[in-house]
Amino acid sequence: MKKLINDPYAVAVQTIEGLALAYPQYLRQLDNLTAVVRQDAPVSGKVAILSGGGSGHEPMFAGFVGRGLADGSVAGNIFTSPPPQPIYQTAKAIHGGAGILLLYGNYSGDVLNFDMAAEMLGREGIKVSTVRISDDVASAPPDRWGDRRGIAGDFFVIKVAAARAEEKADLNGATAAAEKANDSTRSMGVALTSCVIPASGRTIFEISDQDMEIGMGLHGEPGVQRGALLPADQVAGEMVRRILADLPARPGEEVAVLVNGLGATPLCELFIIFRAVSRLLREAGLSVCRSYVGNYATSLDMAGCSISIMRLDSELKRLLLAPAESPAFIQG
Amino acid sequence: MKKLINDPYAVAVQTIEGLALAYPQYLRQLDNLTAVVRQDAPVSGKVAILSGGGSGHEPMFAGFVGRGLADGSVAGNIFTSPPPQPIYQTAKAIHGGAGILLLYGNYSGDVLNFDMAAEMLGREGIKVSTVRISDDVASAPPDRWGDRRGIAGDFFVIKVAAARAEEKADLNGATAAAEKANDSTRSMGVALTSCVIPASGRTIFEISDQDMEIGMGLHGEPGVQRGALLPADQVAGEMVRRILADLPARPGEEVAVLVNGLGATPLCELFIIFRAVSRLLREAGLSVCRSYVGNYATSLDMAGCSISIMRLDSELKRLLLAPAESPAFIQG
Amino acid sequence: MPKLNITPPDLRRILCFVAEAIGKEEAYLNSLDGAIGDGDHGITMRVGFEAVKAKVGALDASVTIDGVLTESGAAFMGATGGAIGVLLGRMLMSAGAALQGCKEIGTSELRVLLNSMETAVASAGKAKPGDKTILDAVHAANQAVATTAEADQSLPNMLSRASLAAGTAAQNTAGMRARVGRASRLGDRVLGHPDPGAVSFSIIMRAMAQWLEEN
Amino acid sequence: MPKLNITPPDLRRILCFVAEAIGKEEAYLNSLDGAIGDGDHGITMRVGFEAVKAKVGALDASVTIDGVLTESGAAFMGATGGAIGVLLGRMLMSAGAALQGCKEIGTSELRVLLNSMETAVASAGKAKPGDKTILDAVHAANQAVATTAEADQSLPNMLSRASLAAGTAAQNTAGMRARVGRASRLGDRVLGHPDPGAVSFSIIMRAMAQWLEEN
Lengths: 332, 332, 215, 215
Ligand SMILES: Nc1ncnc2c1ncn2[C@@H]1O[C@H](COP(=O)(O)OP(=O)(O)O)[C@@H](O)[C@H]1O
Ligand SMILES: Nc1ncnc2c1ncn2[C@@H]1O[C@H](COP(=O)(O)OP(=O)(O)O)[C@@H](O)[C@H]1O
Ligand SMILES: [Mg+2]
Ligand SMILES: [Mg+2]
Ligand SMILES: [Mg+2]
Ligand SMILES: [Mg+2]
Known about the structure:
The complex is a heterotetramer, with two copies of chain A (about 325 residues) and two copies of chain C (about 220 residues).
Chain A: H1 11-22, E1 27-29, E2 35-38, E3 48-55, E4 72-78, H2 84-94, E5 100-105, H3 108-123, E6 128-133, H4 154-166, H5 171-183, E7 185-191, E8 196-197, E9 202-203, E10 211-214, E11 225-228, H6 232-246, E12 254-261, H7 267-283, E13 287-294, E14 304-312, H8 314-321, E15 324-325, E16 330-331
Parallel strand pairs in A: 3-4, 3-5, 5-6, 12-13
Antiparallel strand pairs in A: 1-2, 2-4, 7-10, 7-14, 8-9, 10-11, 12-14, 15-16
Chain C: H1 8-24, H2 26-36, H3 41-58, H4 65-79, H5 82-98, H6 107-125, H7 134-146, H8 155-172, H9 196-214
Helix pairs in contact in C: 1-3, 1-9, 2-3, 2-9, 3-4, 4-5, 5-6, 6-7, 7-8, 7-9, 8-9
The complex binds adenosine-5'-diphosphate (2 copies) and magnesium ion (4 copies).
C-alpha cells in the first residue's frame, strides 16, 4: 500500500480537517465532528441540505458544501456511513427553521444511520425529508429501481435540490426537485483496478491486468460484466448503451453529462471517454446542455470512471445551471 | 498498462478534442491543431497569454484556458513539446494586437520550440515575450535558479500574468507580473510510483513498493532523495522545509499554496498533505491567503503530489484573487 | 466450575474479552466483507468494540446490567457507523431496555436478552431469517436458548448452545443469496461466502461462552 | 560495388531506410530516455521519421538534394516536437540551405552536410561537445569526414567512418554528465547511460552507411 497518509484509521478525520483548512471561504468544520457546514450556516428560512456517507469518495460529499450546494455534510470512516449522532448534530447546526433534506446514496448502512438521525430530529419537531440517491443502473434491474445504489449521480441530485432550496422552496419543493433529479439520472461505472483500503492495506477485489469490470460499484461491489479491457470508445459505447436503455430520454431532449474519475485515472483518459460519450449522445439525438469532466465521486485509488447522464426538463436545467460555489465545484 | 484510451499515439489529440467538446462555454479547438483558445479569442487590445507543453499533465495547460487565464494553449504529444508551427498558429489566432506572452515550463524541448515560434512571430512584427517557469526547487541549486524546470507552479504564474493582462497591462507589464510570480514561487514534488507512457506501455522509472522519491520531476526526472515512504506529515515536512529554505519568505508575510496531485493520488491524500502544510506554514509564521488542493499539473497516472508556495505582495495577491473561469479552474 | 450468573462486573469483563476476540479477527472479517461487500466490516467491528471497552472501563461501579448494555450500545453506535453500527448498537440498547433494573444475567435474562436483540435487528434492518444477514445468527442463537429443554437450562450450557447455533447459522449463510444490505445486488456471486455480520455475531457469542467456561 | 554518389532519388530511399532503422529501435531509444529523461525519445524519433518517409514519398521527381533535405527537416519538425524535433529538423534544413541547388551528394557535399548539421545543432541547442547531447555524435561524425586522408576519400568509406565515429561518440556519452537538456538536472545519476539523441544520430549514420554498402 502506497498512500500519503498518517494513521490509516485517521484518514477520514484528517481529510475533513485538511478540507476545512484549505477552503475557509466556503465552509468550516464543526467542533469534534467529522463534518463541515457552509461558512454562513445556518441560513435562516432556507431548507437545509445535508449530505453524507462513508469517506473515500472525495470530493463527494464534503467537497460539495457551499452556497448553492449542500449546507452541511457528515463523513463516516472509509466506506462506512457516519453514525446517527453526528448526522443529528450536523443537521442541528445547519437548520435554518425550514426543515432538513437528507441526501445520500442508497446503501443499507447509510439508510439505517440517517433514518435514525431523522427520528432523533423528528422527536424535536424538526421537519426532515429524505431522498436516497439511486442512479447506478448496474446495481438492480429497472423493476427494482429503488434498490439501486447511488454513485456519481449524487452530484446532480445535490446540485439540483440545493439550487431549489436556494430559491426558497419549502421542504416539499426541495424534496420534489431532488426526487425528480434522481428519477432523471442514470450512471454506469467501470473499474480497471481495485482500490486499497487504508486500514487493511489490501485491495477489496482481484482483477487481472487485462480485465475491466463494467458496473463495478463505488466500494468495489461487483458489476454486470467482466472482460478484457477494451479501447475507450468501446467502453464508453457499452456504458452509454446500458444507460440509454434504462433512461427514457427521447431524441431532441437535452441532457447533462458527468464523466467522473474513480481516483487513480488521470484527466486525459476522462476527456477521451467524454469525447466518445459526446458523439454517442449526438448519434442518439440527444443534445448535451452542460458537461462536467473530473473527479467527483471517487473510490480511493481505484482506476476507472463512471458516466452519469441526467435528462433535463426546463426546471432541472434551470436548477443545474444555477450558480454554486464550494471547494470542488464552482459555477458562475 | 491499463488505460481508458484508444490509439496510444492519439492520446494528446483526443484529450484536446474531449476537452473542447466538454467545455464549449470557455474554449474551442483550432481546426487541425492540438490547441484550444478562449471562446472569444482574439481579445482585441489585450496581451494574449499563450501556454503549452507536452501532454500528459492535464489539466495543465489546456484546462486553464479561459477568461482571466490563458488565451490559448498548444499541446504536444505525451511529454513532448509541441512543434513551432502550431505554437505560431495558435499565437496568431489569439493575438489581439497587443503582443503575445509565452508561458511554459523551462524544459529544453519547450525552449527550443517556443523560441523558434517566437522567431517566426517576430518576423511578422508581432511583439513576443517569454517567461520560462522554473519553480521546481529540486531541479537545480539556488545559484542555477534559471535552469530549474517548471512544475505545478506554472499555475500561479499563468494565473497572475493573465490577470495582469486582463487589467489591460501592456506586454512589458504582463511579462513583469509573470516574472514576479515565477520569482516568488517554489515547488517540490514527491513520487510514489512511475507513470506509464501510453505509446511504450512502460513505466519510465523503477521504484520499490516501499519507497518514495522527493524531488521527482513531472516526467519522472530523478529527484533529490529516495527513501522509505514516510507518513504524510513527515513527507510534507521535508518538502516544506526544502521550499522554505529556498524561498525568502519572512514571518508575517502572506503566501498562496497549491497541493497538487500527480494523477493517481486521490483527493483525500492531498487534503491530508494540505493539513500538514497548513500547520507547518503557521509554525513558520506565514499566513495562507488562499489555498488550492487538487489535480493541477499531473504526470499521467503517477502517484504522488507536489507542493507549491507563492510568496505574495499586494500586487500578486490582487492578481491571484482576480476572477477567472476555465474548465479546470473557476474563481468568482 | 463456570459461573451460573453474570454480574455487571462480569459483563464488563466479558465485553472486553469480546473486544479482544473481535480484534483478532479484524483481517478475516474484512476479507469476508471484501468478497461480498466493501471490505470494512472488520475495521468497523474492532473500532466499535474498542469504544465499548473504553466505555465499560469508565462506568461507575454501581452500574446495573441494563446500564452496561445501554451504554455499550451507544458507544458502539457512536464510534462506528455503517450498517453494523446501528444494528449492533440497537441490539445492545434494546437488550438494556428489556432488562431494565436487572442486576444479574441468569438463564431467563439470557432468553430476554437474545429475544430483544433479534427483535431489534429485525425491526431496524427489515430483514428476515434467510436473507443472509447478522439476523440469521441472532435468530439461531435466540432459538437455541428458547428451545433448551428444562433439564439442560444452565447459563453456561445455554450460552454454549447459543454459540454453536450462531456459528452454524453464520456458516450456513454462505449458501444463501442476500436480499438486503450491500450484498443484495450481487445475486449468485455471493454464494459460497458467509455473511460478515453473521460471522461477527457468532464470534461474540463464542467469546461470551468461552469467558463463562474459563471463569 | 557501392555507389559513389547519392542522387535525390537515392537520398529519398536512404531516408526511408533510416525511418525503418529508427522504427526498429523505438523501444530501445525510449528506454535510454527513460533512464535519464522522460522516456519519449524513441516515440518521437519514429513518428518524426514516419513523417519524413511520407514527405519524401510525396515529393516531385524533379526535386534536388537540398529540396529533399529541407522538406524532410520541416516534416520532421512539424510532426514531432520535443527537443529533438527542432534540433534534427534544423539540422536537416540547414544542410538543405548549405547544399542549395545540389544534385548529388559526393565526398565534398558530405563534408558540407555534416558541417552544417553540427553548426545548426550547436547554435540552436547552445550545447558544446562533451555536454552529453546529440551534438557529441554529430561532432564526431563531422570530424571523421573532415579528417579523412585524401587517399581514403570515397563516399562509402567516409560514411562508414562517420558512422563508426558517431557510434563510438554516442557510447562515450555514457561517461559524461549532462550540461543541457532534461538530463542536466541529474548530476551523477546520468553516468553510465548514453544520451538518447546521440544514439539516435548514430543509428541514422549507420543506416546511411549500410544503405550505401548494400546498393
Ligand atoms: N438491513 C439489514 N438487516 C440486517 N443486517 C444487515 C442489514 N444491512 C447490513 N446488515 C449486516 O451488516 C453487515 C455489514 O456490516 P458493515 O460491513 O459493518 O457495514 P456496511 O455494509 O455499511 O459496510 C452485513 O454483513 C449484514 O450482516
Ligand atoms: N540544448 C540541447 N542541445 C543539444 N541537444 C539537446 C539539447 N536538449 C536536448 N538535446 C538532445 O535531445 C535529446 C532528447 O530528445 P527528446 O527525448 O526527443 O526530447 P525531450 O527532451 O524534449 O523529451 C537528448 O538526448 C539530447 O541529445
Ligand atoms: Mg461500509
Ligand atoms: Mg519529452
Ligand atoms: Mg462493509
Ligand atoms: Mg525525451
